[in-house]
Amino acid sequence: MIESLQQFDVELFLKIHRGLANPFFDWLLPLMRNRYFWAPLYLFIIIFSFIEYKKKGWYIIGMLLVTFAIGDMVASRLIKPAVARIRPCNEITLANDIIHRVPCGSGYSFPSAHATNHFAIAVFLIFVFYDRWKPVLPIGLFWAFIISFSQIYVGVHYPIDTMVGAILGTLIGLLTSKIYKKLQPQL
Q: Is residue 137 within 8 Å of 24, Cβ to Cβ?
């Protein structure tokens, strides 16, 4: 069962990584996974939280940082070392199939910390802002998805790495949003 699941994962990875290859994706998708590309969005969220929510904005940003920290700790510090799955771009059996679009990195692959962190942040923000701004739902989910999908396209994660990261991040975002709603000051 595990071998057939791994085989499916490798085949799906290659369909995305090689099968969807085109100059536009080669330009766009490495940007989508770059934290510096998203820095203006992060700054906007901080400023928006303070302007729109005043004192409560401090709680939003604080809990957002806690959400990120939990996601990163669980994915990168707990699960990755325990599973120790080699990244596809470092997998010797795939050496002739990999298109090097970004540096590979030496860390492990499962689960994707990018997927975990961004789905956690997106779900947290959806729960915080949805009552006042409904478009946060599709925009937040698309944002987390495109970052996760980019990880597969550039060759640093298998699809299952990002799917599990998305599920883990969603659960973390749900947990921290529930904690936030219970602890938030009634301003």
A: no
Q: What is the DSSP string of 82-140?
A: HH-PPPGGG-GGGTTT---SS---SS--SS-HHHHHHHHHHHHHHHHHTTT-TTHHHHH
Backbone dihedral region for residue 133 (phi beyond 0: left; psi -120 to 50: alpha; all else: beta):
beta
Q: Can you give the pLDDT at residue 106?
A: 80
Q: Write down the mean pLDDT value for the chain.
A: 93
Query: What is residue 180's predicted lDDT score, i.e. its pLDDT?
Result: 92
Quick count: other Cβ atoms within 10 Å of Cβ 167? Answer: 14
CA 27 to chain CA centroid, nearest Å: 19
Question: Which amino acid, one-letter code, is at 130?
Answer: Y
Q: What is the pLDDT of residue 75?
A: 96
Which amino acid, 156? V
**Looking at residue 107, what is its pLDDT?**
86
Q: 130, 121, 109, 125: which is closest to 169 by C-alpha?
A: 121
Structure tokens at 50: 């303070």
State CA 31 to chain mean position distance: 14
- State the pLDDT confidence band at 187, using cuts at 50, 70 and 90: very low
∠ CA 178-37-66, nearest 5°, is 25
Residue with the two structure tokens 């085109």 = 22
